[in-house]
Amino acid sequence: MRLSLRFIIPLLIVLEVIAYAVVPLVDRLMTQWSIKDLDLRSKAIASAAATSLFDGTNNYSVPKARMQNILNRLMEDERLYALGFCNDKNALTYRTDKLPGEVSCQDSVTQESEFKSETLELSKGPLHVSYYPLKGSGGVMVGEMILVHDMSFVRTRSASTKQYIMYFFIFMGAIIAMITVIVAQLSWRGWLSGTRALLRGEGLLRPLAPGSAPELRPIAQDLRKLIRDLETERRFRDDSQSDWTPRTLKELLHKELAGDEVIVVANREPYLHVREGHRIEVQTPASGVVTALEPIMRACSGVWIAHGSGSADREVVDTHDHIQIPPDHPRYTLRRLWLTETEENGYYYGFSNEGLWPLCHIAHVRPIFRSSDWEAYQKVNEKFARAVVEEAKTKDPVILIQDYHFALLPRLLRQRLPKATIIMFWHIPWPNPEAFGICPWTKEILAGLLGSSILGFHTRFHCNNFLDTVERFLECRIDREHSTVSFRGERTTVNRYPISIEFPGRLQRQAKSVEDARKAIRTRYDLPPDHLLGIGVDRFDYTKGIAEKFLAVERLLELHPEWVGHFTFLQIAAPSRIRIDQYQHFQLEVRELRDRINQQFRTGTYEPIILQMSHHEPADVLEHYRAADLCFVGSLHDGMNLVAKEFVAARDDEQGVLILSQFTGASRDLPEALIVNPYYTDECAAALHDALTMPAAEQRDRMRNMRGILHDFNTYRWAGRMLIDAARVRARNRFLDRVAMYDLLSSS
Ligand code: F6P
Fold this sequence. Notes:
This protein is an alpha/beta fold. Helices cover 50% and strands 17% of the residues.
């Protein structure tokens, strides 16, 4: 509207000026035309009168009464004001009453005299006075007739004409203004939608649609360049930043997302409070999410919203269910959310871990989908959405949502906090469309996830699987080159962000030396000082390949009996999801397998497999890593697997060998590990043997390279890359907001 007014007001002024210039011109023309008209009328009247008056001689001898009679009849013409008659001596012989004194016979009327007229401005108004020569036979002048017309009608006509002209210009102005506004609105809307399309990336890759505003083409080019520059700058920033520390991340957060708050949503809390008799103990759960995110929250502050699942969790929170953590040195807030047993069973054990977990992992466990679980899942996602809104201090927080427990949360939050930057990270694999299609609520899950601004996976392969699934099940637009999905008018960037760990690790500084750790652990498990030790650290989960690792140990001892009595594989298996039947069966199966193998190779106190089915705190796990000669990660399928990275991070002595399943995301990041197929027992046994016999120099080379990778790609960089992308999305959204504001202003 403002734009239109800017155009219309000058237009109206111009029209006004034109109108004022045109009016006098038209006025003059009107007057001239009226005078001509009066001249013709006068001639016609005079000529008709002359015929009645003229007697055929060259003398006018009309009786006075008749003359008066004729003049009176002529005077019936309403425009005729007065009449006069002059004889050939220029004497006014007859006249009507109103003939003004200022009008008299002409002095020099001759045979050549012609009709004449003039305008007299008298006090009573303008008068048109015409003189008509009366000629007898042979053209002899016999007299002159004076006709006086009242010209006030010309004034009236002129005034009306002026009025009509003004009306005409006003009407024209209105029509032009209206057309201008309509055209301006249409083209502004076209421009706006074109610009929006450009900002969404449409038209940047392809030429703009035919019919779209041609003036947008240069803008499209500029935007294309701008986006390329931003991309290059982003890549450059990401690549050039070799040291990713808590400080880098903090600075990035404040510079790129100035003063913005971070809210993390994860099912698992970073610290659990557990009642042990009269004491309350703090536990750090075995969780990749916690390992990766906790250092980020320490760096950035903010709020972590999680299910309060520790037995003493409720006892330590404040009235808002908040507690400041880490307990020893508080840096951020943990908001605990309480779930009923029914909710926990349906949402966590049921839909998340009996449904989505086996669905996404190729581990040959049949997923179970119950309607009641799905209902609980929806309800709990809603519950978390409400908690996020309660915790948000601004309209546009950065929300980091973790994992498959919250597939519906991005959309729920998009509805409640439309300006929020929602980063969803899917920590587990994403299968192909056929596999994912098994879920009865595939479409709802996809639509939920596409509420996020950024959706992250560990590998490109999982991103592609996701895009294929979306393509198969939803009506949307997928841009493969930029890896984006436009759905219901919103755009989600689907990207690969391989997760990592804190490097160098915080605990490392207080850790025992490798030598001391070796001694301590061997003493703890009653092993001789030079005993070779392999370590496995997992949640007790059927996807982790624990049974496959035991089978590989068995095969090693069969193929290389020289290791019997000299090598032990120690598996730490943190109890996990124990209410689920599958997990109970799996634990039983693994225990039986351990017993069978141990029985087979037992000599004296020696047993080749130690299974530790208990929770171990991070510092304790670190000590195990440092004491081991090899670490075996045998996942049958894993999004990333941070145990592999933790082992490498723990080995600042550059010794120790990592055996890594090819089915983990980590195998792409750590190619210097001995990569194995956990289903192929002989290959795994050979890898164990290679690891146990690998020269120290080779161990050092491999370990050094892997540590280099961790140095460059630690968890701060993982989060940093997402935040840089989030900042880009926010900048783009802010720009779109401004465009929308113009839109609003112009239509108001
Ligand atoms: O691997 C998926 C995951 O959510 C991890 O992110 C986390 O380490 C693990 O599962 C934790 O499982 P839970 O919270 O069920 O014990």
